Structure formats: structure tokens, C-alpha cells
Amino acid sequence: METIKPGWDLNLASLAGSFDRYFYFGNIYSNQTKMTSYNTMDAYLHHFNAVTAENDHKVASIANIRGMWNFNTADRIVEWAEENNLAMIGHNLVWHSQSPVWLTTHAGSEEPLSRSEAIENMELYISTVAGRYAGRIYSWDVLNEALLDINESEWRQNPDWRAHMRSAGRGLEAANKSQWYNAFANGSVGDEGGSDYVYYAYRFARIYDPFAILYYNDYNDHVPGKRDAIAQMVTDINKQWESDRLYDGRLLIEGIGMQGHYNLFGWMTELFHVRNALELYSQTGARISITEWDILMGGSAANPIEPTPGLLEAQAARYRELAGYYLEYSAFIERVTLWGKADHQSWRAWANPLLFDSSFNAKPAYFALLEAVNNAEPPNISLPAISTEKISGAVLGEYYAFKMTALQNNYAPILWSLRSGSLPPGLRLIGRTGVILGTPDARGSFTFSLEAANATGSSSREFTLIVQ
């Protein structure tokens, strides 16, 4: 009997295509073996239009040793995203975990660097990494998991986000402390303090990649207490930014990333908390993304759980309910990203947390998402109206970057393309960011038409770019 090799069914309805009137639908770029096994690459491009590197854009993967930069894999993922018109999500620039000690700590000890040394290192890292990919990254998770898990009682006792940061007055295991906090506190005077590293991180990110949308990303973000702290932090940082000499009318923290790691059983599985969090975050003025979505069936690494029909249906019901909330708040939601493709490839494979099983077959959860979107209220989405009126000039042999802008009624994906004519030699258009970038190598006047398209339709406009 012929053995049927496992593989993805590309005849299934595309997840990205099903949700593209509402928001991006993404997944992770895991290691090369997982990405190239069977027909995974084809399945990725079929189902997803946004990509986050699971590990390869984290700090330890790029700069584990001071002065030694490893961009081989990081570059390859960004290039792959561009070639396939995927929105590239940068994950992440500042985190307490997977972060080398040279950034914040003296070698061979736990003694923090001084505040000035930490500021210098933070700027070095963000300028090098965010600057390298400026215009090519759709959004950056600038800061990841800066806040402790806070319950309602703790928040009522001290409703100030700065009091609930990692290393802010509560005992933590070393692996969970933020050495960024400790270093910024070391040498602070007056109103300065450890929490200042938050503002510095976003300010540097804005300087070195003015095109990317800047996010704060965290888990247990639906939990009352922590939810309120996140909303307050985002609001406070954005208020502080309004007094900065660099303030340009944009928010500094432009997005809140809700990781979306949920469970079928146990603590905080009442999903109305998610809806309440969406409501609160929508009031901050920041957009929202679901950045690392999965739903665990139970079990543990030592005791993997077997997916019974009952568990599969319970998981599907939970995915359906959450998708309903995301669609309800789609006017504020920019992206929904799953944290893994098939169950056996998940970072928590023992819990079977994803939409496809270990043979790449669609689970009831996949069909539950299609049911949710097919039954949803139609979104308020208009044609993307190009708002850029003219393009600034360029200089021969000098690096150039210019962002196109288009307006629409929600955060549905927009894809930019060259409709007619040609860009100056040496320049290219990044489809998902709308940024024209490169180094022109010919003088002259170049006329071309650019198109911005979403699920409803497209608009175009003619531009002339002069290279002197």
C-alpha cells in the first residue's frame, strides 16, 4: 500500500484572504527546517500575509557579543518577506529575556552598568538594528514584557505602572528581572529612574526607523490589573512624547500587542476579560494587534495531552469566541498572528495549541475561524485613498527613503505596487510599508504611477521623482 506523505492542503480557504477586509493575518517564521519541511512555504504564502521571526530578530540572535553582529538569518527573513509581499514584523528590540549581558551588566557579575552606559548601549543596538531595516519593517515590538503580572488588588493598592515593572520593588528570579531597569536606575538623579528605559527605547526606535509602527507587546494583557497598567503606561509615555522636541504629531507607542496565549482550563480562562481589554486599549488611541495567538488544551511538557474529539471542539469554540471579539473590534485591530503553524511545530507542542494538527490537517479550530468571519458584520472599509501629493527629490549616490501614505476606514492590509513607469535605478518600493528606498545611481526626472490596493479595491496616482 502506498504511504501518503503528510503535507498542507492548499485547497483550503486562505486565512489571510478570509480576514483581509478586517486586518492582517500572520504567523511566525520558525527555524529553516520547519519552514522548508513538506510544502510549508507554499502553505505559509497561501494562509498568511504577515510574518514575525520566532527568534531570529531577538537581541541574542543578532548581537550576543558586543561588537559582533550576526545578520545572516535576520536578513534572509526580511528579504523573503519583501519578495513575497508579507508585512515584516520586527520582534523585538528591548526585552529582559534572550538579551545578552553586555547591554546592561558588567562582565562576569550581576552588577548593572551605569545609566549613561546603558543609554549608550541601547542607542547602539537600536540604531544598528532598527536603522538597518528602516522602511522594510512594517512594525516593531520595541519593548517586550516590561510589566509584572499584577492582580486587581495589587493595582488598587498602587495604581502606578512604574511600581509594577520588572525589578521595581518585588522579588523576582534573576531570569525574570529587567537589567535595563536596574542599569537605568544606576546613577539616576532627581526625577530620573529605572522606568525611564521605556521612553528611551521608543524614542530611539522612532529616530532610527521613522517608518515603522511602534508596539508594546506583553502576555496576560487581558488580566485586570496588568491590563490597566499597560493602558496607563501607553497613555503616559505618549503624553510625555508630546513635550519632546522631536514630537511630530504621531503617537510614540502606536500599538498594543496582546500576545494571546490562552488556555482551555485553569486561571483566567473567562474570555470576557479579553473583550474588556480590547475595549480599554481601544480608548488609548493606540491600535491593537493579537501577536502570539495560541490556545492550549492542557497537559505539560512532561505529560503531553492527547487531543480527544471533546477537547478539539472545546478549543474550536474558544477560537471562535475570541475571533468574534477581534472582528467586533476590527476598527482598532491591525493584525492577528498565530504563534506557530502545526501543533508539532509549536513551542508548546505538548498542548496541541494551533489550527492544524501534526499531520498538517485542519482542526475544528480552523473551521471555527472561518465560521466566525463568514458570519461577521461587514467591515467599514473604504478604497485606500493615496494622501501623498508629491515625492521629495533625491541625490545621486546618497541613500534615499520616502514613505507613501494612504487613508482608509480601518487597518485592513494595503499593498503598494508600481502600476506604470519606473523608479530611478537603484530605488525600490517595499510593498507593505509603502516606502521607496535605496541609493539612486542615475540622474534625471522619473515619472511613474503607484497603486495602493486593499480587499475592496485600489487607487493610483502619478508622481515624479527628480534625482539631482
Please describe what this structure looks like:
The strands form 4 sheets. Strands 1-2-3-4-5-6-8-9 form an 8-stranded parallel beta barrel, surrounded by 5 helices. It has helices spanning 15-19, 32-36, 40-47, 59-62, 72-83, 115-132, 152-157, 179-185, 196-208, 226-241, 272-282, 309-328, 364-374, and strands at 24-29, 50-53, 87-95, 139-144, 213-218, 255-258, 261-263, 287-296, 333-338, 385-386, 400-403, 406-407, 415-421, 427-430, 435-438, 444-453, 458-467. It has 468 residues and is α/β, with parallel strands linked by helices. A hairpin with a 4-residue loop joins strand 16 and strand 17. It has 13 helices and 17 strands. The radius of gyration is 23 Å and the shape is globular. Helix content is 29%, strand content 21%. It has 2 domains: 15-374, TIM Barrel; 385-467, Immunoglobulins (Immunoglobulin-like).
Task: Give the SSE map.
Elements: H1 15-19, E1 24-29, H2 32-36, H3 40-47, E2 50-53, H4 59-62, H5 72-83, E3 87-95, H6 115-132, E4 139-144, H7 152-157, H8 179-185, H9 196-208, E5 213-218, H10 226-241, E6 255-258, E7 261-263, H11 272-282, E8 287-296, H12 309-328, E9 333-338, H13 364-374, E10 385-386, E11 400-403, E12 406-407, E13 415-421, E14 427-430, E15 435-438, E16 444-453, E17 458-467
Parallel strand pairs: 1-2, 1-9, 2-3, 3-4, 4-5, 5-6, 6-8, 7-8, 8-9
Antiparallel strand pairs: 10-12, 11-15, 13-16, 14-15, 16-17
Helix pairs in contact: 6-8, 6-9, 12-13
**Strand element count:** 17
Which consecutive residue ranges, at least 5 long each, have pLDDT under 50? none
Helicity, as a percent range: 25-40%
The share of residues in extended strands comes to 15-25%
At the fourth CATH level, what is the homologous superfamily of the largest domain?
Glycosidases
Strand order of the largest sheet: 1-2-3-4-5-6-8-9
Structural class, judged by helices and strands? alpha/beta
CATH topology of the largest domain: TIM Barrel
Radius of gyration: 23 Å
Q: How are helices and strands ordered from N to C? A: HEHHEHHEHEHHHEHEEHEHEHEEEEEEEE
Dominant shape: globular
What about the largest sheet? Answer: 8 strands, parallel, barrel
Average pLDDT, rounded to a whole number, is 95
Number of helices: 13
Assembly type of the shown chains?
single chain
